[in-house]
Request: fold
Amino acid sequence: MLLARAREWVAHADEGLTVATHTLKLKEQCPFRLVAYHARQCVEKYRKGFLVLHGVDFPRTHNIARLLALCGEQVDWAESPRETEELTPFAIAARYPGDDEPVSKSEARRAIEVARTVREAVREGLAAEGLALP
Reply:
């Protein structure tokens, strides 16, 4: 059951990264805030998938620092990369007009870069723990 649920979280995480990557290709009409949002969603969902696999009941949160701390309680490698914390503000930037600051193209690209780094690290960790992923 935990394996299946963890795979579902990973699949959702990968979908977010796919959306972010393809949206960035829109060039001038690209909504960079949505790129950053989906990249950070990827990070959040990979972390939550890791926690699900370990049977950790996590709070309903979008705070990546909190998720990092919970993951780090399970294994040492799960706390890195720490730069994922910089993506936390993007949880709000795409959803609530008026309270957000514009997201630049370079910030959107950086968010995708961080998401890919997290994806690779978490997938390697999960594979080492016996979770086969496509």
